[in-house]
């Protein structure tokens, strides 16, 4: 049986090397090479071995770049860098059957299902995501399988299981005690030293980033509201430990006290930020931290609370309150100049409709050009990958999408992507 692993390795190598065409040349009718700048008409993008090697003015002939160079004609399209969603959960989707699925599905089932969600997200034009809370073994395997070209999906920056307080958001709830015991992740912690251990534990098993929950959450059925749940000393210890080990920290946070405590401790981003106040805005700007608004999650839970019957009354009440407040506070943070990175919390909403976040951001008053920047340049900065992602420039990874209308003019253009390339490989072409 010893030959099997090597055979697997050979097949994997064959797949990953066939992924990359030799040289590909794109004729872009309109090219937004650097979101934030103005788009340019009639440009040629040259791609080799998965990387962008040149961007030239006008439509250059493909054969100029090699006699087998392949031309992709997007001369009637708007071309831009692949979108990046900074908050997803690729292992599932919120539904009334979540409880029974937790009992019926094996970890392998969950991992297999997550490959379907990953594929949907990629086909929606999202070439990079941050997965902020999942069963660690399965999400790290998905991340690595995508990297190796075994399955198709966006590049995944994964947190694994969240570092959270006992009984807090991120811990298990809503089940009988024996099951709660069984499902409680090893990253649940109390007190600074225990949270230091939990942070190290997450990193030991493969976390790219540490996700914490400094406040309660809308979907926790613990009747503990959305106030601060992790203490200042825990937050400081987690951030110091994670940063020391080269990992960024992002905190789920709704109430201002929890947002501000996390920002004071030095987190790199805040998810949701529903009740950000003046002090939060000051701290965001002082630290250069990012807000990941997740308006789509707010919108989804408000709709579910009003139109479905599987949430408890406590969750419904929280959802309606937070969903509405989130929009007003996002608008205030944006107008005050807080760094914004695009993120949906997909998994709460369905996978593949991630671009709807952009429409909600526009409805809340964000300029289209800033929305596109939040999903490319800003997201790349947040994950420290500005050198390789976020723009279409020489030397960067060839993650490229195209639309039949300019999203700078009509943000809803993002809802229907015509062309998706990741690592130089075409995944969708209409
Ligand atoms: Zn989330």
UniProtKB/TrEMBL annotation:
Segments forming domain Amidohydrolase-related: 78-426
Pfam families registered for this protein in UniProt: Amidohydro_1
Record-linked SUPFAM superfamilies: Composite domain of metallo-dependent hydrolases (SSF51338), Metallo-dependent hydrolases (SSF51556)
Domain of life per record: Bacteria
InterPro entries cross-referenced by the UniProt entry: Amidohydro-rel, Metal-dep_hydrolase_composite, Metal_Hydrolase, Metallo-dep_Hydrolase, OTAase-like
Annotated keywords: Signal
Annotated signal sequence range: 1-21
Keyword Signal applies: yes
Key word Signal present: yes
Protein's recorded name: Xaa-Pro dipeptidase
């Amino acid at each position: 049986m010893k030959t099997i692993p090597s055979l697997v390795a050979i097949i994997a190598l064959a797949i990953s090397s066939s992924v990359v065409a030799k040289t590909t040349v794109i004729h872009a009718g309109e090219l937004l090479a650097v979101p934030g700048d103005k788009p340019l008409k009639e440009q040629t993008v040259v791609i080799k071995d998965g990387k962008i090697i040149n961007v030239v003015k006008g439509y250059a002939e493909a054969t100029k770049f090699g006699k087998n160079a392949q031309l992709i004609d997007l001369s009637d399209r708007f071309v831009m860098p692949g979108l990046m969603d900074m908050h997803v959960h690729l292992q599932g989707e919120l539904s009334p059957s979540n409880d029974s699925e937790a009992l019926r599905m094996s970890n392998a089932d969950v991992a297999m299902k997550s490959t379907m969600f990953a594929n949907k997200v990629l086909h929606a034009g999202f070439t990079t995501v941050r997965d902020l809370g999942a069963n660690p073994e399965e999400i790290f395997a998905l991340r690595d399988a995508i990297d190796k070209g075994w399955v198709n999906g966006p590049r995944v920056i994964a947190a694994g299981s969240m570092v959270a307080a006992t009984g807090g958001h991120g811990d298990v709830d809503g089940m009988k005690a024996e099951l709660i015991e069984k499902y409680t992740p090893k990253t649940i912690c109390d007190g600074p030293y225990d949270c230091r251990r939990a942070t190290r534990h997450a990193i030991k098993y493969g976390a790219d980033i540490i996700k914490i929950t400094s406040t309660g959450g809308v979907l926790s059925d613990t009747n503990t509201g959305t106030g601060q749940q992790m203490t200042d000393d825990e937050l400081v210890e987690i951030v110091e430990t994670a940063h020391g080990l080269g990992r960024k920290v992002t905190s789920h946070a709704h109430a201002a006290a929890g947002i501000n405590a996390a920002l004071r401790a030095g987190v790199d981003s805040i998810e949701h930020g529903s009740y950000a106040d003046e002090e939060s805005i000051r701290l965001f700007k002082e630290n250069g931290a990012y807000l990941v608004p997740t308006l789509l999650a707010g919108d989804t839970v408000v709709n579910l609370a009003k139109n479905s019957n599987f949430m408890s009354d406590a969750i419904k009440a929280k959802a309606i309150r937070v969903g509405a407040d989130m929009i007003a506070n996002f608008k205030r943070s944006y107008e005050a100049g807080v760094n914004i990175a695009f993120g949906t919390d997909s998994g709460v909403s369905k996978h593949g409709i991630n671009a709807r976040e952009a429409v909600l951001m526009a409805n809340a008053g964000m300029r289209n050009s800033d929305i596109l920047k939040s999903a490319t340049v800003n997201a790349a900065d947040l994950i420290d990958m500005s050198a390789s992602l976020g723009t279409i420039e020489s030397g960067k990874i060839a993650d490229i999408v195209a639309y039949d209308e300019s999203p700078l003019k009509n943000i809803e253009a993002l809802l229907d992507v015509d062309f998706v390339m990741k690592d130089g490989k075409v995944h969708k072409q209409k």
